[in-house]
Write a structure and sequence with these properties.
The protein has helices spanning 51-69, 75-78, 85-91, 93-102, 105-115, 117-122, 218-237, 244-247, 277-291, 304-317, 324-327, and strands at 6-18, 22-26, 29-32, 34-39, 42-49, 124-126, 133-135, 139-141, 144-160, 183-200, 207-208, 213-214, 250-261, 296-301. It is an alpha+beta fold. Strands 1, 4, 5, 8, 9, 10, 13 and 14 form an eight-stranded antiparallel sheet that branches. It has a two-stranded antiparallel ribbon with strand order 2-3. It has a two-stranded antiparallel sheet with strand order 6-7. The protein is globular. The relative contact order is 0.21. The model has no long low-confidence stretch (mean pLDDT 89).
Amino acid sequence: MKPMFSLSIAARAVLNLHSLNNEGGEGNQIQTRMVNVFADGRLHSVNAISGDMFKHIQSEHLHRLAVQAGLPLSIGARLFNANRINYDLDIDKEFLNQLKGAKSNAAELDLILQRCAVTDVAGALITAENRSLPRKSVVEFGWVVGVPGSVKTDSYFHVKFESERGGGSAGVDESGSITGKQTPFHRPASSGVYAIVVQVEAARVGFNDISQRYAIDAEQRQKRLRALLESVLYTFIEPAGAMRTAQNPHILDVSGVISVSSNVLPAPCISPLKDDFVADVQRVANSLNELHPGAIELFSFASLGEFAEQMSRLIREAEPFTLPVVQGE
């Protein structure tokens, strides 16, 4: 397979009875997250799961894969601390002194990329001692939004029972509890077709955006790309999120298209909010291939099984593209 510059996934997933993302609660009523989207010539209010949630899910899978593969990790990343490399700078004075000795943002970023694969791939903003040094994530998720007319949210009544209930009538007191012992609450469950978009900048794995060169060798880049693509696959297979202990989502189907570019052009991606998104991605790919023959490959899938098969082949065969500016040095 040709070296991978970028990868995009546009997919529709059928999720039933999930509650992966919520706004919070009002009294004993849990509120599901709703957003406005434009489709079919007008705005629609639909249920949605934030890209932050899916990025967190993907990072969780990436953390496990990176530990298992023995990739270099900061202490923070190894502990799955959200601050990643920043955690090290708070507790490891030797590493902080190394950064001070680097004397430039480019040299500091080299040290950070070499020290932590998760920070390299998932990104971070390094803020120690008044720094504002960004590492932009290599993988991006959009909101996972319900396709208008194909998603619905219901609210269901539940009660938390106390093991030792008192006698008497079951009146609701000011705290919302029944006789102070039993707590009723309402929890949402959403079902329907959801649109998902994901983009992976494979060529940027290990790439120092400031010095415009790679901070790690080709073998390390290959290992990190494999872990990254695996984590994206596992995010679709197991979309961990809120309330999974009692509302693990029923994943009925996933369909769409994976596009992969092998030259310095973006892998095309059209929102699955559009009914003919696969055909439109195909048209964009054909146009780009007229400019750069063979630069875009498409892999369509009609089920989660087919998606896993396509991604598995890409994971086994894909190599990260090396940007031309580096090849010329």
